[in-house]
Amino acid sequence: MRAFGTEFACPPGYLNTASVGIPPAPVAAAVAESVERWRTGASRPGDFDAYVARSRAGFARLLGVDPGRVAIGASVSQLVANVAAALPAGTRVLAAEGDFTSVTFPFAANGATVTEAPLEALPARVEGHDVVAVSVVQSADGRIVDLPALRAAAEAAGAAVLLDASQAAGWLPLEVAWADWVVAAGYKWLLSPRGSAWLVVRPDAGERTRAVAANWYAGEDPWSTVYGLPLRLAGDARAFDLSPVWLAQVGAAAALEYLGGLDLAAVAAHDVGLADSLRTELGLPPGGTAIVSLDGDPERAAAAGIVSSVRGGRVRVGFHLYNTADDVERVLHAFG
């Protein structure tokens, strides 16, 4: 099918982008070409530097920051660990109840005192905490944190903020450059291969971030830091780079450049429009999010040709670029 200016091989009823996004044809082709070069011995390590630079710049463009503020990695938890490991033991971290554990586990494992609060009450609970760590869009049900209220509360309380944009970046226009740290995985709404992730570090937050997996690629010039001491890391957020997953970065470079050329307001209108039309037909209030959480039998959904996930005992569906009103009708047939 063709959608938003490109081709997708997305089957009808695929509503599982919140787990795994479907790449546009050019993204899949770029990865396939790189696999072929690898298979035939044509690849050289230095060839992949350009893809890393492109993916870094693409993610920076989506979030409205300078590429020098962006570190690359393979997963959210890896990158959050750079933040959690730098905090003194006993640091008071506020998190949302039931948030994805890649956001909360690194803090709990590194000695922080983590307190959970209902998502809607998070801004009101910031006082008395040192850090707030929360997903912009909740993985389980698509609820969106009140970012303006959270920003105001954090600034008033002097608390730092880490945002996980994994379920938001790619469909929701974001203005989050104010946050101390923003992290996201690429394999969901960003339509990139698994093994690509990014961490945005606000300049003044760099000294409160630790390169827990310092490596050759985190050097100012990676090819001059492959051997020997002393420690010599880059002077910007690249100091927190993880050694890149090459094929994932090839796909991410193409995917982020494609997404960067779209009007994200139009993408959000499409995604949320489909999600809210489903909610309306089911007698539910609009949610304003691309993710819908439903009571129902997962086996019945599968029998109707719906690819979805089960989160919190409920069927989770998500609508992205390649979904249509036919997908809404398929869900209504199964649940209506």
TrEMBL record:
One of its GO terms (molecular function) is lyase activity. Residues 127-285 form the Aminotransferase class V domain. InterPro entries: Aminotrans_V_dom, PyrdxlP-dep_Trfase, PyrdxlP-dep_Trfase_major, PyrdxlP-dep_Trfase_small. GO terms for biological process: antibiotic biosynthetic process. Keywords: Antibiotic biosynthesis, Lyase. The keyword Membrane does not apply. This is Selenocysteine lyase/Cysteine desulfurase. It comes from Amycolatopsis australiensis.
